[in-house]
Amino acid sequence: MAYILPGPKTSERLHAGKTLFRHGLNYDEDAVASAARGFIPPAQIILDRAEGDYVWDLDGNRYIDFQNGWATNPLGNCHPEVLQSVQDAHQRYGYHWEHPLRFELAEKLADIMPGKQLPRFTFEVSGTEAVESAVHTALCYKKRRYIISFTSSFHGAGMGTKVISGYTSEHNLYMEPWGAAVIKAPYPYSQNIPADMTPEQYVNYCLWYLESHIPEYIVPAENIAAILVEPGLAEGGNWIPSVDFIQGIRRICNENDWLMIVDEVLTGLGRTGKMWGIDHYDVIPDMMVVGKNLSGGVEPCAGVAARDEILGDNPRASAGSTFAGTPAGCAAGLKTLEIFKRDNVVEQAAELAEIAQSRMADWPKKYAIVSDVRCLGLLMGISFTHPDKTQFGDDYDDSYVARTVRNEMLVNGVWAICDTEPTVRMYPALNMDKQIFVEALDIIEAAIQTVEKGAPLVGDYPAIPSGVTGF
Ligand SMILES: Cc1ncc(COP(=O)(O)O)c(C=O)c1O
Hints:
Layout: H1 8-17, H2 27-36, E1 47-51, E2 54-57, E3 62-65, H3 68-71, H4 80-93, H5 101-112, E4 120-124, H6 127-142, E5 146-150, H7 159-164, E6 182-185, H8 199-218, E7 224-229, H9 243-256, E8 259-263, E9 287-290, E10 302-306, H10 308-312, H11 327-342, H12 345-360, H13 363-366, E11 370-376, E12 379-384, H14 398-411, E13 414-415, E14 423-426, H15 434-452
Parallel strand pairs: 3-13, 5-6, 5-7, 7-8, 8-9
Antiparallel strand pairs: 1-2, 2-3, 4-10, 9-10, 11-12, 12-14
Helix pairs in contact: 4-11, 5-11, 8-9, 12-15, 14-15
The chain binds pyridoxal-5'-phosphate.
């Protein structure tokens, strides 16, 4: 039996949010607009509790968690050992900067960095801060003013990371001048390939843009400090770059004396079925940004790892807000790494990924609405389209199909992510129970079948029940 969402308690909370939160004033209007676009209002759930592979909403509905706190729970929700370690750290240290756990965690991280070649670490609270810190460090180290980042990338929501991220021009409205030192290059993935180019040609074009077009026409090579790249375009749709692209970036950085900074906030710590996303590419970066999973799903912990000289001898670079590397955050990170090793968590993720890959591989052939599937480990994405877009008129966008499938998954008990892109993104815990994982895949495939058979996408959704709004 599919859930009827939102249940009354969830609905009440959503209503309360109208006067409390950002966008509250547009709430009703947006809900009606989303409904008209095929987005069952509201697709939000509000949690009553979370445990292991499941979450429950305020109305008692249970969901398999493929949303994963926006990919922050490598060990499932509220892992008891991580909780205990966090509680112990709170009890012992409260909050002080000068605690020993930051030394222990930095040592452990140095040990698992690619090729053990990024031995220094600086702590930050969030991925956003860590990316800003990495960029600042790179500029100061190189004594240069520009960096290169990519379209469709996401590096955070601070002032710096907003302009570094590859948002659309509309997203960065009113902030355009703040991005003056960021050069945006195209990131190759299958849905942005210009007509008539093969994927390989597009990768070559993107590499040519980096090594020839930018230095020749935009900024001289000797003014550029670094390329910042996600080895897996995470928030941009879980797109997986080719080996040629990532190795090409390493080569171009070497040839131009630029630093290669990889943002592993989302791809790091086992998400891709290896410890680091970059491990799939046989490339060692100069700097790496980590976050999310390092929290053990409980307590924020993030930072930047770098080659010895970049962090060790860089007097101008500074960073670290009050709560960077809290005792509890470091305890969560330490316990997470301990469990990773003890329980072979990364290997477990790779095993689950194999199940997903073999199950999903033929979905683009089997279902007309599925345009692409991809899994690099448990960085999983399904992109959607519609074989007959014309019937929906000018208002149509592929993201409506994705949202409808995501909603269909939700009402049948699987919670995943669909933002504005035509993709459902999924981040199961790395150690999810196999049976539960397969059950979720069954629900996902059934949701695709329902929408394929003609679930309404635009316009003719049932009216929003009175008093129930949201989006
Ligand atoms: C690749 C990447 N970098 C940075 C960030 C920002 O991290 P945070 O939200 O912890 O500030 C994110 C968040 O989703 C991310 O996916």
